[in-house]
Specification:
By secondary structure, the chain is mainly α. It contains 14 helices and five strands. The protein is 73% helix and 6% strand. A hairpin with a 2-residue loop joins strand 1 and strand 2.
Length: 366
């Protein structure tokens, strides 16, 4: 009976999270369809969707698995470039964006997942600060490799080179030379297939996959590793296997977010995916509440929109942003505030329960 109540509680919690996403989508759709939305509002919708997916996926590693990863932007970088390379190379052969863009999303996600497996096998043997430092280093390594990557297509085929010297010393057919990835200059000409509708669809898919994973047997095994590694290992749970599952799924959706991001820009450079971006994603998770997918969504929306909404304050914009960050951190980590929130929501729930019982009693009498 207790497990059934917990299941119902988790289901209700998940339905509220889905409801928030649906309500946000309906609001954005109506607001833009009526022509009331400004260019600023329409411009930040896709970045908000990207950051929401990143926050949810990182929360799987940080909140559910309990491991601190600081290389999430590196997986996003892999997905972004893999998806953009595919779209640029197939833009003439696959003209329909409804076919090309989903394929780019799948390719970007799989590429990031493969890198996640390759990174996770050695890295997940570490714990705590050591894991954070190594994932941060891997994120920077991925960024620097992509930053020095050259992919050129000519009459003799496709050439992949690392480093500007290798590119300068390579002889290409000048008449048929097509530079797809141009080192530090990145990729230009990626089709602008991203929009907020695709973003909300990807958010919904990310939520369904991760919330179902968390509530599954695999999710319970992952959380048992987080709560007590030794006890989990003593009952036969394969620590490496379940940690790698969580890490790979997290990397996959980071790659998906990267594809959504890259197809919203006219040019894509690797320098954007530095450790500062990884820290920003971690901020979304921490401020929203570690382990809370709903909190990650709300924090990502607020903290992505705030810098743009505060742009009119000019020099005081980042000061106000920092103050709001501090206030949110204090509120979320204050025991008194948690007590008052529980008391408030508990009182509201109690009133609804009392009203429901009263209505049921009246029905029984009648």
């Amino acid at each position: 009976m207790k497990s059934l109540n917990n299941l119902n509680k988790n289901t209700k919690r998940n339905m509220i999270t889905y409801g928030i996403v649906v309500a946000m989508f309906v609001f954005c759709f109506v607001y833009t369809a009526t022509g009331a939305a400004s260019n600023l509002f329409q411009g930040i919708l896709v970045p908000i969707c990207v950051n929401v997916i990143l926050a949810i996926s990182l929360n799987l590693t940080v909140g559910i698995l309990g491991e601190l990863s600081l290389g999430h932007a590196g997986f996003m970088c892999v997905g972004a470039f893999a998806g953009s390379i595919f779209s640029v190379m197939t833009s003439s052969s696959i003209e329909s964006a409804f076919i090309r863009f989903p394929l780019a999303i799948i390719i970007g996600g799989i590429a990031a997942a493969i890198i996640g497996i390759l990174v996770g096998i050695p890295v997940l043997r570490l714990r705590g600060d050591y894991l954070a430092i190594v994932t941060l280093a891997f994120g920077e390594i991925i960024k620097n490799i992509v930053n020095n990557l050259y992919i050129v297509k000519d009459s003799s085929g496709l050439h992949m080179l690392i480093g500007v010297d290798a590119y300068n010393n390579m002889e290409f057919d000048p008449l048929n030379k097509n530079v797809i990835v141009n080192g530090a200059m990145g990729i230009t000409g990626t089709p602008k297939d991203s929009n907020y509708i695709a973003g909300f669809i990807l958010i919904a898919i990310t939520l369904v996959v991760i919330l179902n994973l968390v509530n599954s047997r695999t999710g319970r095994a992952i959380m048992s590793i987080r709560d007590n590694r030794i006890a989990a290992e003593s009952v036969g749970i394969n620590i490496t296997k379940y940690k790698l599952i969580a890490f790979t799924i997290s990397a996959f959706f980071a790659g998906v977010a990267g594809v959504l991001y890259s197809h919203n820009l006219s040019s894509l450079v690797a320098t954007k995916f530095d450790y500062n971006y990884s820290i920003l994603i971690l901020v979304f998770v921490v401020l929203g509440g570690i382990g809370s997918m709903r909190g990650s969504i709300i924090a990502a929306v607020i903290l992505t929109a705030l810098p743009e909404l505060l742009r009119g304050l000019s020099d005081y914009r980042m000061l106000m942003y920092a103050i709001i960050l501090i206030v949110m951190m204090l509120v979320n980590n204050n025991e008194n505030m948690s007590y008052y929130k529980e008391k408030l929501f508990g009182g509201i729930k109690g009133k609804f329960a009392a009203k429901k019982n009263q209505n049921d009693g009246m029905k029984g009498v009648s």
